[in-house]
Amino acid sequence: xxxxxxxxxxxxxxxxxxxxxxxxxxxxxxxxxxxxxxxxxxxxxxxxxxxxxxxxxxxxxxxxxxxxxxxxxxxxxxxxxxxxxxxxxxxxxxxxxxxxxxxxxxxxxxxxxxxxxxxxxxxxxxxxxxxxxxxxxxxxxxxxxxxxxxxxxxxxxxxxxxxxxxxxxxxxxxxxxxxxxxxxxxxxxxxxxxxxxxxxxxxxxxxxxxxxxxxxxxxxxxxxxxxxxxxxxxxxxxxxxxxxxxxxxxxxxxxxxxxxxxxxxxxxxxxxxxxxxxxxxxxxxxxxxxxxxxxxxxxxxxxxxxxxxxxxxxxxxxxxxxxxxxxxxxxxxxxxxxxxxxxxxxxxxxxxxxxxxxxxxxxxxxxxxxxxxxxxxxxxxxxxxxxxxxxxxxxxxxxxxxxxxxxxxxxxxxxxxxxxxxxxxxxxxxxxxxxxxxxx
Length: 440
Ligand code: GLY
Ligand code: MN
Ligand code: MN
Prior knowledge:
- Its EC number is 3.4.13.9.
- Mn(2+) 1 binds at residues 256, 336, 381, 420.
- There is one protein chain.
- By secondary structure, this protein is an alpha+beta fold.
- The chain is built from 13 helices and 16 strands.
- Helix 1 packs antiparallel against helix 4, helix 5 packs across helix 6 and helix 7 (267-285) packs antiparallel against helix 8.
- The structure holds glycine (GLY) and manganese (II) ion (2 copies).
């Protein structure tokens, strides 16, 4: 059962306000005007793209579907919410909110987007615009727009989730796990990729534009395409494997979960079990104070051992890593920060000023180099794939002898494996939200 959010939210809003006070003092600013966003029109059409709210806006409150809203905060007084409520008989107009968060805002209604200047501070000197529409900021007279000092600070601190946020993320996991269970059942009953997607969405009660990212639902060799989103309507001649990378949203927070299944007991199923063990061991390794990069490197070490054990490779374990053999089978990063965005901000930040710590040159796709600290939420998602374009390089040079190509041929039709959980770092333990919900 989800904890009552109302008391947790009190602390959340205090923390948001405290951060603003801190950064305003540091940057010598008066306040922030955080814009929810605006609709974007499709080319030569009168239809809008789906609205995606500014993450800085939804950090304050779970209003996700309303453009032309603003939060005005000076870090001292109760924040103002300018809530857009046009007179419009063509479209559904958002109701005036009444929820656990409403009492924490001074709410002002805006009926015409272009009239917002009437509700903004009269003197915008020292007020920074935080949002996507710099043209709007310009017209309104904001001189400061998304200043680096403010953005870096807010992004850094966003990695330390409040109790309210952690509870939202547990709930986003709970919803996604319902979908994963439905999808697994659909796979074993013979559903196509498209049908599995429909059953997933229907089970979680979220539409394609509500989930935090485009689901990856891949049968057989499609599982080797890292960002596969095609969704075949027809079934493959033979059903071999299923990789599903799918999340859910709750109050604007994301979950991001992957599982892989074999249709029958076989060598691929054994490999899934070995990868599952490896993934759990990696979660266990998390300790506050270590860098995420260390965990990523540990993954390669473990993968090399696994490849020897499963007779996929031969030779020296360290050589498999050093010569890039493991990278050809596991070409992406171990994971990333998770939160208001699936690939949440500040994965490379080394401090609140935004000093960038790049991934090691041999691991260019690693999305997080940060020191792990309590209240961070990360994905742990090791993978193993048969991607012929990457393996071609191995096959054609001296490394070829290290790989058991017969085993590669056996595994190829199954595509690949990824197992992804969402983990909270605590001081004394790691909380695997996904496994805690019973998704194995
Ligand atoms: N679903 C995108 C990712 O796992 O990073
Ligand atoms: Mn994922
Ligand atoms: Mn992920």
